[in-house]
Amino acid sequence: MTKTRRFNPDRDVSPWSGPLRPYDLLKEVTVAFIVVAVLVVGLAVVFGSPDDKAVTIKSWSTQDAVDFATTAITELDGTSATATYGPPYNNTPDAAQKIGPISLQQLAGVRQPVNTAQDFVLGPLASIAPQNAALSSALATFNAADEATKAKWEASYEKAVAKAEFANGHLVVPPGAYGPVAVMISSLTAMAQSGALDTSMVDQAHFYGTNYTKSLLFVADGTHLETLATNQHLGGDQWGMMNETGNYPGQAWLWLYTMWYQVWPFNGPWGANADALVWALMMGLTLALILVPFIPGLRSVPRWTRVYRIIWREHYRSEGH
Amino acid sequence: MTTEQSMPLEEDAAQWTAKVRTAAARALPPEKLLPDRQPAYLSSAIYVFGALTLAALVIVIGTGCILALEGPTWWHVSSVGLFINSLHLWSVEAMFFFMVIHLWGKFFMAAWRGNRQLTWITGAVTFATSVAAAFTGYVSQTNFDSQWISTQAKDGLNATGIGAFFNVLNFGQMLMWHIVLLPLVVGLLTGLHLLMVRRRGIVPPFALDADGKVARTAEEAR
Question: In the structure, what pLDDT confidence band is assigned to residue B4 with cuts at 50, 70 and 90?
């Protein structure tokens, strides 16, 4: 004997046996298309679309040479955000975020290796050293030094560069015991300002390069990009990613994802793992949205809220309710 | 109901082709696929938002195809390109606006009732896929906005391990996802969603008992 499933108003319906009425589906879709087309053309004509030029390494180093040099030394001494990021760029210990005891970031591993010192500083400098005797000598001295000496030069320079100035086309750093590092960073800054240190150099692209991972990481390690973004209300604490340059609506549909970063505990005690935790939460919520029909309680919300009385008001009125 | 023409000859009935045609004709006979009459309860403005979403999607794909004809940086140097990009942007904004209203409308109708769970699921997955499609568009703009969004978004994706495979800083990879893979998925899911809507029909209102409360038994619901 088969068991009959009990009727559940949040899951089941009785087949409609009421009247039908003419409904021209294709006409509705055609009219909808015309209405949307007119709306979109109107919005495009009146508001257009924003297109702020990309920041290049040349524009960054020209407009804010000190920030460029400050970033460059952190790439060389391995203290920049990218150098200490962890997977997928490098194996920095304890850098990967966790969801409870599990680190998916660590499990995925280093799949886009970035050696900031070599990729952003030493490699590009080596490419121009043959044409620059002072730089060639500085690089030789640097490469021949032991790690402790290098670290000492780098630490001294990193401290001093914060007080540097850019005057008469040169980076002027207060005198100090920087060994060859001052010549190296100064040469890299000049190289960047000339446009020679741009994406193809940093990304070590082939002729047809399309992967800008390294150059974007380098630019994002500085404060120049962030300052421009913050001025455009795009900062992480300004509901960043969902906004758009200028007064455009941007990705408003990301409001829920962006919201979690603004609230406790994601902006407080969970901050160190906020990205992983927000993603886990959003994946859970997305799954719940997809599976609403099967989740008791959640699938009853429409019945409880009675919004259906507004949607089908004419139908219920015709039935005398 | 299937039309007589769609039924194969007896000796051909075992063919795969014949079986698929018969099953398709049974599931979606022409009068169900393109109906000219609908239940009387289908008279709220909320029903228009599905069609509006579809219309906006058509414009998104059309303008995207024009941008694809000229390449990813054309719109930076051409006033025509900039206008097409504006159409693309605003049709995306419109599509999400309509889609979200459509989604909430269907939620408050409990539109999954009556064996329509797959209709709901395909719609919800299409929404999630559209978010990914729009996002890859934002990071493929080749301008300041795409630089900032991609360098910010990488942290969330990297933190979950996804970033190791789906690298938002890799313009070439993001562009391919944006113009090939995700539109394909959105298109297929939208098609499936529409077929499910036509197959199951529009969900009827909650049946009410004599006191105006939602019927709790099949007998009351009749």
Answer: low
* Spatial distance between the Cα atoms of A132 and B119, rounded to a whole number of angstroms: 68
User: With 50 as the cut, is the pLDDT of residue B1 above it?
Assistant: no
Chain B's closest residue to A279, CA to CA, is: B156
Q: What is the pLDDT of residues B15-31, one digit of tens each?
A: 999 999 999 999 999 99
Question: Chain A: residue nearest B122 by CA?
Answer: A290
Structure tokens at A7: 């009727």
Mean pLDDT on B166-173: 98
Q: Which residues of B touch A210 (CB under 8 A)?
A: 170-173, 175
* DSSP secondary structure letter of residue B49: H
Q: Do A248 and B167 touch (CB under 8 A)?
A: no
Give the one of A43, A216, A251 whose C-beta lies nearest to B169's C-beta.
A216
Interface check for A114 against chain B (CB to CB < 8 A): the answer is no
For residue B88, the chain A residues in CB contact (below 8 A) are 49
Rounded to whole angstroms, the Cα distance separating B144 from A54 reads 4
Render pLDDT for A66-100 as a digit per residue (tens, 0 to 9): 999 999 999 999 999 999 999 999 999 999 999 99
Q: How many Å separate Cα A57 from the centre of its chain?
A: 18
A105 touches chain B (CB under 8 A): yes
Percent of chain B with pLDDT over 90: 88
- Helix pair angle (A181-194, A133-144), 10° resolution: 130
* CA dihedral for B157, B160, B161, B162, sign (positive or negative): negative
Q: What is the DSSP string of A168-212?
A: TTEEE------TTHHHHHHHHHHHHHHT-SSHHHHTT--TT----
Per-residue model confidence as pLDDT tens digits over A265-310: 999 999 999 999 999 999 999 999 999 999 999 999 999 999 999 9
Q: How far is CA A172 from CA A102, A152, A235, B178, in A?
A: 47, 20, 31, 45
ipTM for the complex shown: 0.94
Higher confidence at residue A238 or residue A88?
A88
DSSP B2: -
Cα A82–chain centre separation:
13
Closest to A43 (Cβ–Cβ): which among B51, B90, B221?
A: B90
Q: Which residue, among B37, B47, B86, would best test binding to A if mutated, counting the most A CBs under 10 Å from its CB? A: B86
Of B40, B109, B134, the CB nearest to A20: B40
- For residues A45 and A28, give the distance between their C-alpha atoms in angstroms, rounded to a whole number: 26
Q: Is B90 helix (H, G, I), strand (E, B) or coil?
A: helix
Task: For residue A19, give the nearest of B40, B48, B161 by CB distance.
Answer: B40
Judged by a CB distance cut-off of 8 A, whether residue A235 touches chain B is no
pLDDT digits (tens, 9 = 90+) for B55-92: 999 999 999 999 999 999 999 999 999 999 999 999 99
Residue A49: Cβ within 10 Å count: 21
pTM: 0.94
Written as six digits, the tokens of A166 are 């850019």
